Every structure is written in structure tokens, then in C-alpha cells.
Amino acid sequence: MVVDDADDGGLNRLFHALSDPTRRDVLRRCARGDLSVSRLAAEYPMSFAAVQKHVTVLEQAGLVSKRRSGREQLVRTEPDALARARRALDELEAHWRGRVERMSSLLEREPPTREP
Amino acid sequence: MVVDDADDGGLNRLFHALSDPTRRDVLRRCARGDLSVSRLAAEYPMSFAAVQKHVTVLEQAGLVSKRRSGREQLVRTEPDALARARRALDELEAHWRGRVERMSSLLEREPPTREP
DNA sequence: ATCATCTACAACCATTTGGTTGTATGTTAG
DNA sequence: CTAACATACAACCAAATGGTTGTAGATGAT
């Protein structure tokens, strides 16, 4: 990422974090209930360290948080971050809708088909 | 991307495409009205070829399409792709909501504070 | 106290990304 | 026809990504 990070309120990291299927799966699993990192790691055909890194990416994107419980680290998804991503998509869609509205208002300016 | 691409219906490419601020800006600008690649390129502090690559990434993610018009190539945003991304986020949020509902139903199972 | 478990983190490696420049090709204007 | 413009695409490069292994520190169980 070239940009320096405050530019977009973390949207870069947010969407980047979402662009990996393992990470999306982690979000799904943890949404059903907090899971320790090692519990998660057992689910994927990769090393513990790899999963640890994925969790770190999710954490830095704000999509999960970790809380210690004994020797385990429980991962919890943070739905607020998902909401932020959604709002970003809404904003993009709004630009497009604005265009549609502009086109519609052109159409509306045309007189409706004459009522009989 | 390690995964082989049909696994997720293109969500990897979709979110990856959205994870760059230049590309999100291209989407915004083209949403207001189709723009040629060179018109777009003029807006960013990078080479024409770099912008061309960004457009290609957006195109392969399904977020834009290009149509030729004379010697120009007009870029148009494809809101359906944005909708796909939104549905993916909704699905993730639904998992979390499911959890909340499960917690709620646990609470509901508890007897209400005794009525005197 | 010892041992097994969970986590953290560094070092390393192959591939991908995001950028560059340069060259070639097609299209429109004069 | 020729010149200018818009695009396409290859080759190259530095940095980031996604993975590995290995080492070390905490914590819990016996």
C-alpha cells in the first residue's frame, strides 16, 4: 500500500483484509462465537503462524479484536468494521445512483404520455 | 492469490480491486459518467500505463466494463459488482446477527423477573 | 518442577502488486 | 499522407503478500 493510511479511514486495509477467503472464513467462524487462534488454525491447511498472520491482518483492519483468556487468545469479530465497509460501498453506489437520478430527471422533464 | 478463483465467485478479486484508493476513485468518477482511460489518467499522479493497469484490475473484478468509442476506450462502472460485494458483506454480518439472535433466545428462555 | 500447549515473533522465500519506461498499433485530424 | 493521440503490451524493478520454519516466552496441568 503506497498511501499513508489516514487518507481513507482504513478502507484500504479493510477491503484488503476482506480479499482473502481464509480471512473471510475466520470472520464467519468467529462471528458464531469467539475462537482461540489455535482452534482456528486447526481448521485450515496451513501453519499456525500463517493463520496468526491472517488474524493480525484482520485485527489491524479493525475486523476482529483479541482478548486473552488464560493461555488462549480469543478472536472476536467486530461487526462495526463490516458496517464501515458497507457504508463505503453504499457511498460508491450512491455516486452511481446520483447519475441515474440525473438521467431520470432528464426523463421526468419530458411530458408524460398524454392522459386520455 | 493462492486459491484458484471459482471458489468464491470472484470475491477475492472484487475486494482486492476495492482495496486501492485510486481504483475506488476511478469507480466514483466513472459512476458520474463514462470516462476514457486517458481522461482518467490525467487525474492521477502516475503514468498512463499505471492507470491502465488499475482499470484492468477493476475490469477483471467485474466492477467496470470498457466500450470502444473511436480511438477512446470508455470506462463504465458496473453497479452489479458493487451489489455482489454488498451481499457478501451482508452474508458475513448475518452470521454475526445469527449469533446475536442465539444469545437473545437464550435470554428469552430465562424467566422474566418475577411478577409480584 | 516439568511438560505440554498457546502464542509471539524473526528470518527466509516465492509470487504478486503497483509502479516505471519503452515500443508497437490503431484512429482521427489537418 | 503525416502528425498527434489513445491504447495496448512487454520488460523491468522495489515492495508487499502469503506462506514456511525455527526459536522463545507464558500459562496450565500433572
Automatic annotation (TrEMBL), chains A, B:
<dbReference type="GO" id="GO:0003700">
    <property type="term" value="F:DNA-binding transcription factor activity"/>
</dbReference>
<dbReference type="InterPro" id="IPR036388">
    <property type="entry name" value="WH-like_DNA-bd_sf"/>
</dbReference>
<feature type="domain" description="HTH arsR-type">
    <location>
        <begin position="3"/>
        <end position="97"/>
    </location>
</feature>
<dbReference type="InterPro" id="IPR001845">
    <property type="entry name" value="HTH_ArsR_DNA-bd_dom"/>
</dbReference>
<dbReference type="InterPro" id="IPR011991">
    <property type="entry name" value="ArsR-like_HTH"/>
</dbReference>
<dbReference type="Pfam" id="PF12840">
    <property type="entry name" value="HTH_20"/>
</dbReference>
<dbReference type="InterPro" id="IPR036390">
    <property type="entry name" value="WH_DNA-bd_sf"/>
</dbReference>
<protein>
    <submittedName>
        <fullName>Transcriptional regulator</fullName>
    </submittedName>
</protein>
